[in-house]
Amino acid sequence: MLHYKTYQLVEPGAPWVVFVHGAGGSSSIWFLQIKEFIRHFNVLLVDLRGHGRSKAVAGSKEDRHYNFEDITRDILEVLDSLKIREAHFIGISLGTILIRNLSELAPERVSSMVMGGAIIRLNVRAKVLVTLGNMFKRVVPYMWLYSFFAWIIMPRERHKKSRLLFVNEAKKVAQKEFMRWFRLTYELTPLLRYFEEKDTGIPTLYLMGEEDHMFLPAVRIIITRHTNSFLQVITNSGHVCNVDQPVEFNHRAIMFLQEISGGMDAVAGIEEAAPACLVAC
């Protein structure tokens, strides 16, 4: 089972929030969120396979070559062990893909989704990066590849903190495990195309940095096609907006989750609080 950590510091029966990190990261990337969220919610942090304190999978060939469904079911296994029937989910980067996949496998477990730095579609630049990565992954040290990708996705000086955080976390991932995760890129395009076509109807808030040049344009499109989907753009922030602008990220995410209990009419009311930043379907 995945390594996880829980914070149950609020009254019994409080809703759960599950945080899902991206590839190469770990649950430690949420250190700027924990203090604020545990004031309102029970919190569950997980380390994905081969990341943080979760061990890499060993054994049969089938285990060694896993897919997005395998990784998503790891999260469900933790929920089952803790008897969490339903939760809000917050993800960053590739973690948003896993949350979206979880909403397909077990929609009854997902109260809402907050997608930070959401990956909705691969643009031309992203596809070129993935192709180059697959071409050179066996001849170029994997940390060179990861560092290069991190710089392309988060190129500005104010993204440096986020970039270094993810690179330093990625150093803890074994090279073989990195290769397993990189193989998942072959699944990305068809999976993302399916997600774009399928509307879950689950309340979803996309929190995107205004400088997330790789992925923000696709999110602007998808919220016009999916019901109960909202976008808030955080200024002076790049792809990893929970680290670049944690105060804004926390405030917007918590406000959204609290409004869920008031129905989607109340959620739509958030637009009045931040008219320049929110786009709603």
TrEMBL record:
Alphabetical list of Gene3D superfamilies matching this protein: alpha/beta hydrolase
Coiled-coil regions listed in the entry: none
Molecular function, one GO term: catalytic activity
Residue span, AB hydrolase-1 domain: 17-250
Protein name per Swiss-Prot or TrEMBL: 2-succinyl-6-hydroxy-2, 4-cyclohexadiene-1-carboxylate synthase
Organism: Pelodictyon luteolum
